[in-house]
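Feature request disguised as a bug: please show the residue count (253) next to T9SS type A sorting domain-containing protein in the output. Example input:
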Amino acid sequence: MRRLYLFAVGCLLLLTGYGQFKSPVLFYRPTHLKDSLVKKMQLPKIIQPVSLGRMQKTTDNCTAVCTPLPVKWLDIKGERLNDSTALIKWETANEINNKGFDVERSFGNASNFGKAGYVQSSVGTTASARYQFRDRNDFTGISYYRLKQIDADGKYSYSKIVAVKGYRKEEFASVYPNPAQAELQLLLNLSKGGTTVLFLYDVNGHLLQQKQTVFTTGAVLFAWNVRTLASGTYLIRIFTPSENFLSAKFLKN
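Example output, currently without the count:
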């Protein structure tokens, strides 16, 4: 019986060209072949068959399982619709395990991103899906947007960054978020840099706070702590270096 095994294995090695390659030829042996005989014959490493349901690549040290990405990005675009609205549009394909998208925005640079909104996924679609998000944005400089794609298990990935041109206006003031709770961001576009005076009034016209600071020309951002203010409507007036008065209203929750 042992001679029969030796003869069969020898034929198999000849058919597979074992002697022509430096690396061992990988093959499958019958399960009833005795381990002692295999060891004595110094047969090469045996690779067991794997399920066709998953792609598997075997190396000397590890096994890597290939799984599909949750989302395939096809396109993302940004454009300004009017003086107060930016539109972000994107298209995806093969959405697997995708929960949705955070739309993130950064004013004036492509590094300080914050969440502008959220869009629910078209769950489970293998065809292409199109989305859009309208963002209230009257920033005069360039705004940058990106998408944070979130999986159902909490993992996430980012899209590429797109730029949206600003709304051109000589001088203006706006605030966000509105309503505000703890901190208000005052966004100014100034035609001239220099000392700027900020006034905070309540709904009855009483002056509550006054601040003075130096701003540069162009778009500037100023953080105002409103945590201690009572709920209600307030008015901010700004006396600019070009001797103009700007104003912006906000609601405190």
